[in-house]
Specification:
The chain crosses the membrane at residues 40-57, 69-90, 96-115. By secondary structure, this protein is mainly alpha-helical. Helix content is 62%, strand content 0%.
Length: 172
């Protein structure tokens, strides 16, 4: 693989990790009793999760495994929770059991979704590349066959000219 494009799904993986980390951190935080964050907390959360997504997208190809994906999502959940806990929130930095379970469940669900999306993306990109990279082939046009010209016999021409094509008169 070339260094410019080491893995076709790296950008997809990074964007998905960043977006899902932010969205599911808020959802798991709310489901665990933390409530919905204010605009300042949400802005910091988006910045933190964008950073996690950017780091994930730029990981070397040897870190593109399921366990690395689960670790990146876990790191995103931890970063999201710490960001939400650092802003004016009512709970402690260490999460309670329901919130911890909600964050863990969100991490596993996100890992499964991203892994499935990567497999589908790889298959679709492979088909697109095969179809679009095909060498252009000239279109085969069937050569027009000449129509056979019947031979003209001078006797036939005289006979055809002498045969009257007029019918009987019409009664008025």
């Amino acid at each position: 693989m070339s260094p410019a494009r080491s893995d076709a799904t790296a950008t997809l993986r990074g964007a998905a990790v960043g977006a899902l980390s932010a969205g599911l951190a808020v959802a798991a935080h709310g489901a665990g009793g933390g409530g919905f964050p204010a605009s300042a907390a949400l802005t910091l959360l988006l910045l933190a999760c964008s950073g996690v997504g950017a780091i994930t997208a730029n990981l070397p190809p040897r870190f593109h495994s399921s366990s690395a994906l689960l670790g990146a999502l876990g790191f995103g959940q931890v970063a999201g929770h710490l960001t939400l806990a650092a802003t004016a929130h009512v709970h402690a930095v260490l999460p309670a059991a329901p919130m911890l379970l909600a964050h863990a469940a969100a991490t596993v669900v996100c890992a499964l979704l991203i892994a499935s999306a990567e497999r589908l993306y790889r298959s679709l990109v492979h088909v697109w590349r095969v179809v679009l990279r095909g060498e252009p082939r000239p279109v085969a046009v069937a050569a027009a066959l000449p129509h056979p010209v019947p031979r003209r016999n001078p006797v036939d021409a005289l006979l055809r000219a002498s045969i009257s094509r007029r019918g009987p008169p019409v009664l008025v």
